[in-house]
User: Fold this.
Amino acid sequence: MHNCSLPYVSMNTKGRLGNKMCQYMSLALLRKVFGIRVAMVGGMKIQIGPFFPKLSIPVEDHKCFPGHDTTDDFNNLYLKLIEWSAGRGTTLSDSQLHPYPLTKSTYVRDYPCPRNLLLPLRDHFREELSFQPETIKKARYFLDNALKSVQDNSTEEMTIITVHVRRTDYLTFITYRYNILPLSMIYFVRAFNYYRERFARPVFVMTSDDPKWCKKHLVEKDVVFAGSGNAVVDMAILSLGDHHVITYGTYGFVSAFLGRGTIVYPDQNGKPISYCFNSTFFQPIYRD
Assistant:
C-alpha cells in the first residue's frame, strides 16, 4: 500500500524489548489483516532494527507519513477496523473492491500484544523477525555450554524445553495488575511434568532475571541454566527450544512465539492471562 494520501497507523514504542516486539507485530498484524498502511516511528527502527534484519514495516517520515489525526488504544482501533470493513463491504457487489477501512491516521498509545490474533501468524513472524546470524551464533554457544552438563552416553535424543522465569519487577506488578500472587514452584513442576510425560529425554533450559531463585528452587537433574546476560541473546536462546515454558510478560511470550513447538503458560483459575482460540500449541497449565 504505497498511496501516500491514505491514512496510516503508527505506534507507541515505550517499554522494553518484549513490548517493542509486540508493538511491531501488532502493526504488521493490522497491515496483514486489513490492508492498511502502517509505519514505525524512527525510535522503534533504531531499537530493534539492528537485531532483526528482515523488518518490513517502513519508518514514519514526513514525505509519506505526515502525522496523526487521532490517538487510540489497539483493541478499540481493531474493533473499529472490523466494523468499517464489514459495514462497508456488505454494501458492495462481489465485483467491487472493498473501500479502504481507515478514516484517520492514528497513533496507538498503549502496549498491545494480542496473542490470540498473533498465534495464527506464528510462521510468518518467525521469518520476518529472524535474528541476526551473529546473535544466533552466540545463543547456540550458551545453549550448547548449558547442555554439556546433562550429556551422557544415552542414545535417546534430547528434547530441549526452554524456560523463561520472570520475577524481579513482576512480583509486584502482577499482584497490582491481575490481583494474583507470583508463580511458585508448583507451576514449574506441573509444566515440567507435562513434558516429562510426553518425551523420553526432556532437558529444561532456563533463562531468568532472577537466576539465584531458579538455581535454588528449580534444581533437577534435567534442568540447566543458560542465561547470557544480554536480553536479545537470551531471547534467541529461548527461541531455539523444541518446546517452551513461559511465565508472565511480553518478553517470555515473544521468545517462545519465535520458536517452534508447544508453549506452556500459566492458567489462573481457568482464566488465562493470554487468551487463545483454536490453538494446538498454546497449552495452559494450572498454576496453583
